[in-house]
Amino acid sequence: MLRIAETLESQLRAAMERAFPDAAAAARQAGPGLDPQLAPASKPEFGDFQANGALPLAKPLAQPPRKIAEAVLEQLKADPAFTELCQEPQIAGPGFINLTLRPERLATEVQARLGDQRLGVPAAEQGAPVVVDFSSPNIAKEMHVGHLRSTIIGDSLARVLEFRGHPVLRLNHVGDWGTQFGMLITHLKQVAPEALNTADAVDLGDLVAFYRQAKQRFDEDEAFQTTSREEVVKLQGGDPVSLQAWGLLCDQSRREFQKIYDRLDIRLSERGESFYNPYLESVVADLDAAGLLVVDDGARCVFLEGVSGKDGKPLPVIVQKSDGGFNYATTDLAAIRYRFGSAPEGDGARRVIYVTDAGQANHFAGVFQVARRAGWLPEDGRLEHVPFGLVQGEDGKKLKTRAGDTVRLRDLLDEAVERAETDLRRRLEEEGRSEDESFIQHVATTVGLAAVKYADLSQNRITNYQFSFDRMLALQGNTAPYLLYAVVRIAGIARKGGDLEAGAGSEPLHFAEPQEWALVRELLKFDAVIAEVEEELLPNRLCTYLFELSQVFNRFYDQVSVLKAEEPARSSRLALCRLTADTLKLGLGLLGIPTLERM
Ligand code: ARG
Hints:
Elements lengths: L1 H18 L1 H10 L7 E3 L8 E3 L6 H4 L3 H13 L2 H6 L4 E3 L3 E4 L3 H12 L15 E4 L11 H19 L4 E5 L6 H13 L12 H17 L1 H15 L3 H25 L4 E2 L9 H10 L4 E3 L2 E10 L5 E7 L7 H13 L10 E7 L3 H14 L7 E7 L2 E2 L16 H22 L6 H21 L7 E2 L2 H5 L6 H16 L18 H10 L2 H11 L2 H21 L9 H22 L9
Parallel strand pairs: 5-6, 5-11, 6-7, 11-12, 13-14
Antiparallel strand pairs: 1-2, 2-4, 3-4, 8-9, 9-10
Bound molecules: arginine.
């Protein structure tokens, strides 16, 4: 109902201006003018919206706010466009104005959405691209549950932004550069040289083990450290043998990552840390030219404003180590400059979003500040870190296998699907249904993966999240199976002979029951929810909405008859079913979750 809210807001503002022209003129001089403070009603009994704008006027006008509200109402009621939209407004409490839309307006709004694939969500004008930097695992390391969260949350945010019409660059900032390769290549030269010049000589599991050994040697053995550092320098200097070895190692990991992306239906463009290698030196030069660079103990750094360590001294972002090497922060600075920079050496972005664990918050705050001070952001440029909490086991500790190892993503997804299959087979038996194997596999895969994604997305991402197969696969509660089941229920109405298109014609829709109105109002919130997710980057808002919509729908469907109703109620109710299914399908789609017709 965003468009209705906008209309109402301007009607209210105009009424306020007519009622208090002097205050309006003063407010316009001081800023944007009088603000009706329109918000959705806090309780359904207050109507659809409330306007609180009379309260802040009490002081400047030296009048009780109720009197101010009365004067505004007087003017509002004289506006025919307003009376066509709303019922008689009410003043409540100290001076709130409660507004209830006319039922026929709500019905028209529902009808408009039946013919609208965007379900009332306006398409943004094509502007500058938005970069979403997400997933971003590290080569030669296993992708872990933190990367899974980043992948699922980042994909959903990208989908919402794309749906709103923004060109989105989905970037996989893989860790494919730096010291770890020096260690790995040095170690492999000694223990498994074939891995450095033959494709597929080792698989990712071996690579991870080799990496672990290399890291251990690096930490213990000084000679190994020196050789590893030399190896990094060779690689960064473009030595062909090192580059070939590096390429093979990256390919190996890449293939493994891709399997996870394919299973989860994730699209990503890889642009790893190595991409920015050619730009690192000029980043440091730029910072120097901007007068930000300080040499401290041989290292080149930028001292942060307003961020100090325990000793009270400002903290630095180190951009070049004393040995000349660059680090993670330098690469991120180069990436920011590139992403906001203009083509051909840049993406021309206006908004850049990073989805990582909350542990990297200080890193991003630091590089964001440096980039701003260096003047790399366009005037309206936005840099946003989207942090998320840790994934924990049901015991509240870090998620581990029973043997105490880190959980491999492949195993985790397999288990979700297997459990979904077991649940499904049990349910089929209880219901005395028989289904063929391909149905069972399709439903189990869809439900299992949906459960994993939804459990992650439906949490407030900032808090730590407890991973529980039992909870995420439950048919009741705020879970993927519950939402998928609502869609299945509506598909079932069609199978029982309900023509879901019955209300989509030109005949006006008629609603009378409170359950119908509750569903109408819930359905019409969709556009506002999408706008909120686009702004605040919190997919859990969309989840909560879809869950509430399913609950309101289930109440409606349990308490009001649809198929056995008389016309015109029957068609109008079928229209509500159809719009509910469309909203759930679109909403789940934006979470990266496909729906089912039967389950
Ligand atoms: N590779 C990093 C990690 O595994 C995440 C990279 C996030 N993106 C970035 N531009 N720093 O923690």
